[in-house]
Each structure stands twice: as C-alpha cells, then as structure tokens.
Amino acid sequence: MSRIKDNALSVTFLTLFLICLAGQGLAGMLHYNERQLVDGGQAISYLEYVTSSSFAVDVAENWQSEYLQFLLFIMLTIWMVQRGSPESKEPGKEGAESDEEQQIGRHASADSPAWARAKGWRLRLYSNSLGLAMGTVFLLSWLAQSVAGLASYNSERLTDLRDPIGWSSYVTSPEFWDRSLQNWQSELLAVLSMVVLSIYLRQRGSPESKPVGAAHSATGVEG
C-alpha cells in the first residue's frame, strides 16, 4: 500500500488516461458508425475502429500537441522568466546554471544518479535527457499523425472519387495544419493561463501554486 501511496499521482493519471482513451475509442466508433449508416456503409467493431487510421490520427494529433507544450515549456523556462510565477525561475537566474547549482560532476552527492557524476557525452546527454525525451515523443507523434492522417484523408478522397495525394502534399495541406494548429493554440493558451494566473491566484497545498500568503511578486516559490 505504501508503494501505491508513494506513486498515487502517476497511477491516478495513468488510470484516467486509459479510461479516457478507451472512452474516446467507444465514442469515436459510435460516431463513425453513425456516419457510415447515413452514407450507406457498414458499421465496424470497436477493435476495427481503434486500429483504424481515423482513430490513430485523432490520438496522435493530441499527443504531439501535448508534448510540444511540455517541450517548449521545459526549454523556454531555461532562458526566460516571469516575475511572480511559481512556474518560473527568479529573474537573474536565467541560463543553464553552474555545475554546483545542478549538482553534477564533482559537485554530485552520493545519491545523485550515476550519469550526473559522469563526464563527457554521458553527462551532456543526461543533462538534456528530459528535453530530448519530450522532443522525441513530439516528433514521433507528429510523424504518426501525418501518416495516419494521410491514410484517413486519402480514404475520404477515394470515397469522393478523387485521386489520393502523397505524404509531402498532405503535410503542407490546409487539412493537416488545421488539425495541428487548433491543438497547438489551445495548449499554448493553457500554459499562458497557468503562468499568469499563478502570479495572483492560489491553490492551498498544491506545488503548482505559491503559498497562499506569498507576495504576488514572489517568483519560483512553490506551496
């Protein structure tokens, strides 16, 4: 039980993610079958839908926008600050910080990760591993969206007796960028809202908020 309690946040989010993913598949299947019946087509099963390009493109386009959000937030907060926000470093502390502040190399402690005590490429890689992981997932999700989206888009074109198009034509098409930008703008707005609202508003007990009594100008302080 202590292990579950110590990992309750990740377990809860994983459970909610799986429930929502399954729910999206069910709702998407019902919507797809409804259109199929209207168009005189045949209904498909749940398994057929969740392995289809229609489901894959919807999932991938959401994933890539989420990971783009985190990638930008992780990288931009290295060099940019927002006075008063707990999501920002204090003004004057912009940059990658010193080895001592980052507890790496000879400044690492006994319980530091092994690669934090390493030198050369291993230290450089580990020092940027979070951004690299987020960037990799974003690029893979973007690629998956483009491939699945192309298959779904060409399926619609063939239904309308139009010729299919190639990958390069699809990723430069209004269809692709309409899907992408409508997700990007919502993610960027969410981050902007969190950064700015957390200057003036509080949530008692949350590490994403400043302490209730902290000054509005207090920066990088978590409650």
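The above is record 1. Record 2 follows with the same two-line structure.
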Amino acid sequence: MTTKPQRETRKKAVKPVAKKAAKDAAPVLKVRGDEDPWTAPELEEVRTQLGEDIERLISEVSDIELEIMGLMQDSGDGAGDDEADAGTKTFEREHEFSVAQNSREMLVQSQRALRAIDDGTYGACENCGNAIGKMRLQAFPRATLCLSCKQQQERH
C-alpha cells in the first residue's frame, strides 16, 4: 500500500502593498460638504500637534504645581507682612491656581481629541453633530463645537 505524499499548505504572504495601503488609510471622519475627506498625512499632522501640546502641558502643569507649592510654603513666612504684601501673595497663589486649572483642562481636551481621532468621532460637533470643519480643527485641534454652536455658546 502506497501513500500519497501530503501537499504542503502554505499561508499566503501579505503583500507589502496591502500593508502600505492600510497604513496610509485614514479613518473616515466627519467633514463639511465643501471639504475633502481627511487624509492620513493631515491626521498625522494633527496627532503630532496634539502630542506636542500634551507634552508641553504636562510639563507646564508640573512647573505650575511646583510654583504653587513654593507659594504655599512662603505664605507661612509672612510674619510681619502688611496687608498689601499678604494680598499680593494671595493674588499670586490664586493666579497660579487658575493657570494650573486652565492648563489641566487643555491637557484633558488634547487627550480627548486624540482618543476621538482613534475612535472615529473626531470632527463631529458635540452639540449638533454636524462637522466642525477641517480648517477649524487644523487651526485649533481641540475644538469640540462647530463654529455656529461655539458662537451660540459664547452669546450665553
């Protein structure tokens, strides 16, 4: 009894062209009717900008927090300060708190924008659902509202 040789099964190799095409493909994101769809290089530019903003903001928040800690320690050393000195120290401390909060909010917005690119919701207005607009997002990548909703928000 003779046996037939078994045929080797080979997995088909993925062509490099297919990988390149997948890499260059951008997720389908909402755009206005008068705009072209987002391209991979455009999104990469926005990602890069957001990444740089995130790094800068993390550093900024850290520096501000150190400054606040210094101001808090100095506030106990105010023996003999007159009311103007005490008021100045309080103003500086409150100002640093405000700047820190603003930087933290911008950091959260930048991180949220990156997640929105990844999940395919980037470019949609959080209020009305219409497209925010590529030019607006390229100028201000953290935008979450279209221009008309933003104007309406600012009127209130």
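Confidence is low (pLDDT under 50) at residues 7-24.
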